[in-house]
Amino acid sequence: MLSVASDIEVLARFGRALADPIRCRVLLALRDAPAYPADLADRLGISRTRLSNHLACLRDCGLVVTVPDGRRTRYELADARLGHALDDLRTAVVAVETDRTCPDAGTKGCC
Description:
By secondary structure, the protein is mainly alpha-helical. It has helices at 7-18, 21-32, 37-44, 48-60, 80-91; strands spanning 64-69, 72-77.
């Protein structure tokens, strides 16, 4: 039985997904159109194994779903509104001083 996640849990899951540049690229690719893992791996220039790990994380976060398609499995955003949310986040004005970098740049979970 599915339970409804709290607002905090939803935001935390979204944040976890966005904390990794590859997962961001996957989400943006799926925002454009559903895709098969092999095609996504080729498009993003990463190994299928590495992509599989990121897709598993995105599934666990509830942001993508699998859709059986004959003998293949297609991935898509769990909700079309996620595409709109990604666009809103991507185009939001972020207050960043150009002469500063994130103190933990390059580590998981930062910037």
